[in-house]
Write a structure and sequence with these properties.
Layout: H1 3-11, H2 20-28, E1 46-51, E2 54-59, H3 62-71, H4 80-90, H5 99-109, H6 115-137, E3 144-146, H7 147-164, H8 168-185, H9 197-212, H10 214-229, H11 238-244, H12 256-287, H13 289-303, H14 317-329, E4 336-340, E5 345-347, E6 350-352, E7 357-360, H15 362-366, H16 385-388, H17 409-424, E8 430-431, E9 439-441, E10 445-447, E11 452-454
Parallel strand pairs: 2-7
Antiparallel strand pairs: 1-2, 3-11, 4-7, 5-6, 8-11, 9-10
């Protein structure tokens, strides 16, 4: 199935307006409503809808998005349900912390994610990708794989190597089952929005999550204690940097609980989203041989078959563009967390009342017909310097936007580029046919039931 036909089905035909409230309700509860979203949402900057849950305003104009996420962000905090979901998943990490705690954590953690720190993680990323390449090379040619599962396994290995160094194997064995359980346990629906029933269901899920994470938590707390007792001799990995991080103003660091919550946040949000980005990158490359050939030519010219490193990234602009365009068409987080207006405001000339629910769908924004030429087409050259010039900042937000933009954006792009550069030098994964690729959209996007591909060696093509 080509991505063109898949894209067409996702744009959908516009149902009558009386159907819109149920569609907004589906999207609000993290279900896959993308296939039935009204076409007008992909054409208008602001669309309003009324339902028993109140007024919902979908905003997909870059200046409107900027208003919500940056210029007047204090008026649009995350709604209670969103905070409950993320707190259940991550504790008090960056994705769920209240503003004061978030500001302190972000300031303390920033040095661990600056360009120099990210470059220091690159060798571990590249080594993990190379080991994965060797594992693929040991398989018979034309072996069938589930690319979604393969990329999850690889990104989990990379985040463990980056964060825990020599302790990575233990965390891989503990994290895989725990994270898989959390994705299933936190499949929120309409019942979770109801009074009385919702809080009871959430409490039950939180209890199950805490029990399932107990072994992983025990290992993380042990490692934190070991680093704290011998900081000078600890490996220079991400966990050590978090343990050692201090507020530049008052010298305060993060408690063991706070470090644990941030570790879980990085694990859950970081490895899952990068895996999604890579899965759809491989899918799109398999459907566009000219793009794939151009990618291969750049890799052959810049690397000549060797494992890439951080210094090579500047010589791989098209490789990065391929990933950026894949994340435009298939954003790993397809919907920005819902906001609730605290006070009356105006967005793109539309009056906003206190209590209105504001939704920003990354999926819709990245395919909006007012922002992108032929938005369903896969075209990595959109992200060339020439064509990127003048593009509104908030037209493309795969990592969110405003003060709460993902702290690990540069780390994720470095990881994704190193993965693609390493594996695409040796392999041309082909989509296994016949196969109907359907999307599942919960907190992250995913191909429903996985993505079956066949590993073809480039030297055998």
């Amino acid at each position: 199935m080509s991505d063109a036909s898949l894209d067409h089905s996702l744009a959908g035909l516009a149902p009558p307006p009386e159907k819109w409230p149920s569609l907004f309700k589906q999207l609000d509860s993290s279900s896959n409503a993308f296939e039935t979203l009204p076409r007008v949402i992909f054409e208008q900057p602001v669309v309003r809808s009324k339902s028993p849950f109140g007024v919902t305003v979908m905003v997909h104009d870059p200046e409107g998005v900027r208003r919500v996420l940056l210029d007047n962000a204090a008026n649009y905090p995350k709604d209670e349900m969103s905070n409950r979901i993320f707190t259940a998943m991550f504790g008090e990490g960056l994705l769920s912390a209240e503003p004061a705690m978030w500001k302190r954590h972000r300031k303390v953690m920033a040095p661990a994610f600056d360009p120099r720190s990210v470059a220091s993680y690159a060798p571990a990323m590249a080594a993990a990708a190379q080991a994965f390449s060797e594992r693929w090379a040991a398989l018979p040619d034309l072996t069938d794989i589930d690319m979604a599962q393969e990329m999850k396994a690889l990104t989990l290995r990379i985040i463990c190597e980056t964060m825990f160094s020599s302790d990575a194997p233990e965390l891989v064995s503990l994290a895989g089952p725990a994270l898989g359980f959390s994705r299933n346990a936190l499949n929120f629906g309409i019942l979770d929005l109801l009074p009385v029933i919702g809080p009871m269901r959430l409490k039950s899920k939180q209890t199950a999550l805490h029990e399932d994470f107990s072994a992983m938590d025990g290992a993380i707390y042990r490692m934190i204690d070991e680093r704290e007792r011998n900081l000078a001799g600890a490996p220079n990995d991400l966990l050590t940097r978090l343990v050692a991080a201090k507020d530049p103003e008052d010298g305060a660091g993060l408690s063991a609980q706070e470090v644990r919550d941030e570790v879980i946040t990085i694990f859950e949000a970081g490895h899952e989203t990068t895996a999604v980005a890579m899965t759809f990158t491989w899918y799109l490359l398999s459907q566009h041989p000219a793009v794939e050939a151009r990618l291969h030519a750049e890799l052959d010219r810049a690397l000549g078959g060797r494992t890439p490193n951080a210094e090579d990234l500047a010589d791989l602009p098209y490789t990065r563009q391929v990933i950026e365009e894949a994340m435009r068409l298939y954003p790993p987080a397809p919907a920005v967390t819902g906001r609730r207006a605290l006070a009356a405001d105006e967005i793109c000339g539309q009056k906003i009342s206190a209590g209105d629910r504001i939704l920003i769908s990354t999926w819709v924004l990245h395919r909006h017909r007012a922002l992108w030429d032929a938005p369903e087409r896969f075209d990595p050259d959109r992200f060339s310097p020439e064509r990127s010039e003048g593009r509104p900042r908030f037209a493309y937000i795969p990592f969110g936007g405003g003060p709460r933009i993902c702290i690990g954006a540069q780390l994720a792009m470095t990881e994704a580029t190193l993965i693609l550069a390493t594996l695409a030098q040796r392999f041309r994964p082909r989509l296994k046919t016949p196969q109907q690729v359907k999307l599942s959209a919960r907190i992250t996007l995913a191909p429903e039931g996985g993505l079956k591909m066949r590993l073809e060696r480039r030297d055998a093509a």
